Amino acid sequence: MDMPLPVLVDDAPHDDMAAEREAPALACMLEYAANTFIALPIHAGVELVEQPRLVPVPGMPYFCRGLLAWQGRQLPLVDLQDYLGGMNAPTPPSASHVLVVAYQVAPGAAIEYGAFCAPFLIRMVEVVDRDQCTLPAGQACWARIAISCFLYQGRAVPVLEPSRIFTLPVSPAIP
Question: Which terminus of the chain is more solvent-facing, meaning fewer CB atoms within 10 Å of its CB: N or C?
Fold first, then answer.
């Protein structure tokens, strides 16, 4: 069953004076592994698909669960836990829900789509400029796939650019 993207807006209090100076922006935050988050620009999250139909494809990278049948298209389904973990063997399937994302490879180019495994609830969080921080250490690929990073409840959350995952050569663990 397909359903619109659920919205769970984090209502963590912000300093009222600072809120007047900074306009908040929404980010789509995805917990891809227990207590491990990435965010996407709000316009990137298209649809949450429940119980997706997947087609396994031999020879796909270990972090790709197969192809997702979605609105007459076949979308690659990336498991971020495997992609970011740089593992050599897949973890058990975690595709009871997937998040379909939209991206463009260049301004004016056609909109393209891909999908991420979404094992946990997706949250919409407000982010302000003062929340910006450096990318987490220890993950060489962040510089290639993240466009920014912000602090959320004391932890760094990289903001991914989906086109950098779905269009770059297959080498997630290599800087």
Answer: N
Spatial contact of 100 and 117, defined as CB atoms under 8 Å apart: no
Distance in angstroms (rounded) separating the CA atoms of residues 103 and 140: 23
Global pTM exceeds 0.70: yes
Which DSSP string corresponds to 29-84?
EEEEETTEEEEEETTTEEEEEES--EE--TT--TTEEEEEEETTEEEEEE-HHHHH
Lowest-confidence region among 87-91, 121-125, 135-139 = 87-91
Q: What are phi and psi of 18, to 5 degrees?
A: -70, -35
Residues 71, 84 contacting (CB under 8 angstroms):
no
Q: What is the CA angle 102-161-60, rounded to 5?
A: 75
Q: Report the C-alpha gap between 144 and 166 in whole angstroms.
A: 12
**76-101 pLDDT tens trace:** 999 999 998 755 544 555 568 999 99
Residues facing 124 on adjacent strands? 9, 28
The dihedral over CA atoms of 96, 70, 87, 159, expressed in degrees to the nearest 10, equals -100
